[in-house]
TrEMBL record:
Gene3D superfamilies: Pleckstrin-homology domain (PH domain)/Phosphotyrosine-binding domain (PTB) (2.30.29.30). This is Switch-associated protein 70. SMART domains: PH. The keyword Transport does not apply. Phosphatidylinositol 3,4,5-trisphosphate-dependent guanine nucleotide exchange factor (GEF) which, independently of RAS, transduces signals from tyrosine kinase receptors to RAC. It also mediates signaling of membrane ruffling. Regulates the actin cytoskeleton as an effector or adapter protein in response to agonist stimulated phosphatidylinositol (3,4)-bisphosphate production and cell protrusion. It is found in: Cell membrane; Cell projection, Lamellipodium; Cytoplasm; Nucleus. InterPro entries: EF-hand_SWAP70_N (IPR057836), PH-like_dom_sf (IPR011993), PH_domain (IPR001849), PH_SWAP70 (IPR057837). It comes from Circaetus pectoralis (black-chested snake-eagle). The keyword Zinc does not apply.
Length: 579
């Protein structure tokens, strides 16, 4: 009843402020009692007002009388539309704009009633920008147009700079001006206002034509159904003039889909305690929408919740109150912060002066530090120059040593090339016969000694590479060692030349033996020809060695293993004697 009383007071406030009432308020009281179905008591009205009346809100004023003798007796069995229309009639003529509007007087009346529903619970009544945005969005959605958020944001900024919200008449002017319904005709705007009015004021959750099956004749008749929070009413047509019946909804009701039958499609059933109603929607989408809407209504009845739009309005109001409380708390905190900030400013001023004094001292110290730094930089620059000169000399010495090393490596490569040539010469002598074996072994010994000398040279080469990486203090000693090794290399070169002479002598001996072999082979051939001529063809069988021959990398050896062991002992003896 408290919410109903607040809604009634808003409409009455418009009528009360519009009329030039005398202290009794007889005209308004009589009309209110008539539309609210409250017994009118003129005696109590005359007795309430006395000569000491101090105004409409005093103890003997009109508002206390209205609360005590009229509003407290309201039971809710009255027509809200007629009540609002009576209050509208009393206030519209005085307050409604005389400029032409794009909406009719009936549409203006509906906007006025919607304003009373959405306005704040404080006087004078205004509607805040958040509720204006909600209403305009509902109207735009009902018109099937797109919402222009940017346009409303500009309007909201201009509104907030001047005042907190709009009055009912300013809201009517805003909607009637067509500022947020450009491109829409009067009929579309009127239908949108009527749809929003039915939802917010008349609590119409859904409405539309459907077929209903009769309980007695079992025939199907088209009816206009109107779903409200606790009832479904059905009429002959959408003008709502001829009402045919009601379906009372409560928490025990349920709705369920039915399969198609008797040539009817999109069927569903509403079950109540005393009756069940079979209904056919126009299509599957409408069927699903009606089932969902009715089921949602039943669920709200079971939970004892208000209609969705009223619950949403209450949530928006609570949110605004919460934001207002937070804003007030924020303002209080800002004042406290401002006071604390002023105190901090004073402290900071004191600290600033101390910092300035400290900065002056720091500047003097910085000046001394910079002077010291310049002196150190000059000293470091001189040392750096000396280091560069020393480094340059070391690089020149390293370059010189590298050049000498390269020359030494070139001589080693030449020796290696000579070694390869010796190997090629020796490979040509591997197929000599038994008389040539002595010469070949001699050459093998020479090659072995040459390989030992080459390994020794490579060892000296590696040692010279390591000496390059030593420090400057060791370079002089390494230079002396290199000279000694170069002398040793010269001795090795002389020995290598001696080996070359010995190899040449061996080659000469090999040539002599080869000539002797050729002479012997010619003599043998002449002897074989004579024997074949005089005694017939015979095959000469040459005796072979009974001992097994050795196999070398070049084929069968020209001597036995025993002979090889004897020659190895002879070589070792000669080598020991030479050392």
């Amino acid at each position: 009843m408290v919410g109903l009383k607040e809604e009634l007071l808003k409409s009455i406030w418009h009528a009360f402020t519009a009329l030039d009432l005398d202290r009794s308020g007889k005209v308004l009281s009589h009309n209110l009692c008539t539309v609210l179905n409250v017994p009118h008591d003129p005696v109590a009205l005359e007795e309430h007002f006395r000569d000491d009346d101090e105004g409409p809100v005093s103890n003997q004023g009109y508002m206390p009388y209205l609360n005590k003798f009229i509003l407290e007796k309201v039971q809710g069995n009255f027509d809200k539309v007629e009540f609002n229309r009576m209050c509208w009639t009393l206030c519209a003529k005085k307050n409604l704009s005389r400029s032409p509007l794009l909406i009719s007087d009936e549409d203006a009346f509906k906007v006025w009633v919607i304003f009373n529903f959405l306005s704040e619970d404080k006087y004078p009544l205004i509607i805040v920008p958040e509720e204006i945005e909600y209403l305009l969005k509902k109207l735009t959605e009902a018109m099937g147009a797109g919402w222009q958020q940017e346009q409303f944001d500009h309007y909201k900024i201009a509104l907030n700079t001047s005042r907190e919200g709009l009055s009912a008449w300013e809201l009517i002017d805003l909607i009637g001006s067509g500022q947020f319904s450009k491109g829409m005709d009067r009929q579309t705007v009127s239908m949108a206002i009527n749809e929003v009015f039915n939802e917010l004021i008349l609590d119409v959750l859904k409405q539309g034509y459907m077929l209903k099956k009769g309980h007695k004749r079992k025939n199907w008749t088209e009816r206009w159904f109107v779903l409200k929070p606790n009832i479904i009413s059905y009429y002959v047509s959408e003008d709502l003039k001829d009402k045919k019946g009601d379906i009372i909804l409560d928490g025990n009701c349920c709705v369920e889909a039915l399969p198609d039958k008797d040539g009817k499609k999109c069927l569903f059933l509403i079950k109540c305690l005393d009756k069940s109603f079979e209904i056919s929607a126009s299509d599957k989408k409408k069927k699903q929408e009606w089932i969902q809407a009715i089921q949602t209504t039943v669920n709200l009845l079971r939970a004892g919740s208000p209609p969705p739009h009223k619950e949403a309005r209450q949530k928006r109001k609570e949110l605004r109150q919460k934001l207002l409380a937070e804003q007030e708390e924020l303002e209080r905190q800002m004042k406290e912060l401002q006071t604390a900030n002023e105190n901090k400013q004073k402290e900071l001023e004191t600290v600033r002066k101390q910092l300035e004094a400290a900065a002056a001292r720091a500047a003097e110290e910085e000046k001394k530090r910079l002077q010291t730094q310049v002196e150190l930089q000059d000293r470091f620059s001189l040392e750096l120059e000396r280091e560069k000169m020393v480094r340059q000399k070391m690089e020149e010495q390293v370059a010189q040593k590298s050049s000498e090393l390269e020359q030494y490596l070139q001589r080693v490569r030449e020796l290696e090339e000579m070694y390869k040539q010796l190997q090629e010469a020796l490979e040509d002598e591997k197929q000599a016969r038994q008389d040539e074996e002595t010469v070949r072994k001699l050459q093998a010994r020479l090659l072995e000694e040459e390989s030992a000398k080459r390994a020794e040279l490579e060892k000296w080469h590696l040692q010279q590479q390591q000496t390059i990486q030593m420090t400057e203090a060791e370079k002089q000693e390494l230079e002396n060692q290199r000279m000694i090794k170069e002398q040793a290399l010269q001795v090795a070169m002389q020995q290598l030349e001696q080996l070359e002479l010995e190899r040449k002598e061996a080659l000469e001996q090999y040539e002599e033996v080869k000539k002797k072999l050729e002479t012997a082979a010619n003599n043998t051939k002449s002897w074989k020809d004579k024997v074949a001529h005089h005694e017939g063809l015979i095959r000469l069988i040459e005796p072979g060695s009974k001992n097994p021959h050795l196999i070398t990398n070049w084929g069968p050896a020209a001597f036995t293993e025993a002979e090889l062991e004897q020659r190895q002992k002879s070589w070792k003896g000669k080598k020991t004697t030479s050392e």
